[in-house]
C-alpha cells in the first residue's frame, strides 16, 4: 500500500468536513497485512480480576468433553463461555497507540503507518456460573470402595480417578473440585479418589460409635490414637481416621488429636440407612426407631434430614421417604420438572433444601421460585406449582 502524505490526509479531512484543530496531530494509516484474513484470532473479554491472574502468570483453562458446553476455569472460579456478536468490525493492530498514549507523548510522529494483523466480528464473553460438579460424584459412584478385603475391588473394570483425571473431566476450577471432594467425603486410596460404599461407611461408623459407648468417652472428645489402637485390627487405620474426619471435627489438646463428633451428620446417616430399605415409612414409627438407633446422648430432629428425606403430611398417617438432592438433575429447569413430578404443590420450606444449591452468586431461593414456579394459596399457606404442564 502506498504511504499517505500529510497533504493527502489533510485533503481527506477537508472532504469529510472535519476540523483538524479538534483532532490529535498524529494520524494512524491502516493497511491490511498478508495474514489479516486468515481468521486465526479469537477475542476473549476478561473482568479485571481474571486479567490480573493472567498478567501474574497464572493459567485460565477451558474444560469440557466433546459433548459438553465449554467452560473457562481460573484457580477457584468457573465461567460459562458464550460467543457475543458485534456490529462493529474489531481490528487487531499490533503496537497500536491509544489517544492517551499519543497525548502523553508530544513528540509522537505525525503519521503512523500500522498494519492490521487480523479482524473479528465476535468475541467470547464470560459469565460466572455454578461449577458442574454432579459428574464428580457420578464418576466416583461407578466404583465405590467397600473395604480392603473386597473381591470386587480386585476385579473391578471401572476406571479409577486421580486428581489430574478429575481436573480434565470435571467442568470446575481446581479449588471447587477439591472442596467438593471434601463435601462428598471422598478419600484418597492408593493415589485414587474414592467414595466409600454406604454400607461399608456405616460399618466403620458403627465400629467407632460402639467404641465410644464402651469406653464412655464424651462425644466431644474422642481420642484418635486410642481409636486407631482399638480398631486397627478390624479395619485399615486410614479408614478409621477417614470416618473420624468425615463425622467429627478435629482438634488438638495438650499435643493429642481429638475429634468432636458431629451429631447432626451421624443422625442423618443413620436415618438414611433406615430409610433406604423402605419405599415409605410411617413418620411416627420412623422417628421412634431412628431415636433408638443413634448413639447414646444424641438427639434426632427432622431438620437434620434436609435434602435427604421428605415428609408427606397429606397422607394418613403421615409418612417419610428418601429423596436425596444429589440424585436430582443439575439443570435448573430439569430440577424443577423433576420436583413437580414428585409432588404437584410445594411449600417454600419443603422445596428450599432441594433448590438451594441452584442459587447462583447473590441469587435467592425466592428469585428461583419466581422464575420457575407459580404460587397460589392453599388453606392459607403459600404453595408453588409448575409453570408448565408436567408430562
UniProtKB/TrEMBL annotation:
Establish whether keyword Transcription regulation is in the entry.
Answer: no
Query: What's the superkingdom here?
Result: Eukaryota
**Which GO cellular component terms, listed alphabetically, does the Swiss-Prot or TrEMBL entry include?**
chromatin; chromosome, centromeric region; Ctf18 RFC-like complex
Single Gene Ontology BP annotation: DNA replication
**Keyword list, A-Z:** DNA replication
Similarity comment: family membership? Belongs to the DCC1 family.
PANTHER family on file: SISTER CHROMATID COHESION PROTEIN DCC1, SISTER CHROMATID COHESION PROTEIN DCC1-RELATED
Can you say what this protein is called? Sister chromatid cohesion protein DCC1
Source organism of this protein record: Chaetorhynchus papuensis
Q: What is the lineage of its organism?
A: Eukaryota, Metazoa, Chordata, Craniata, Vertebrata
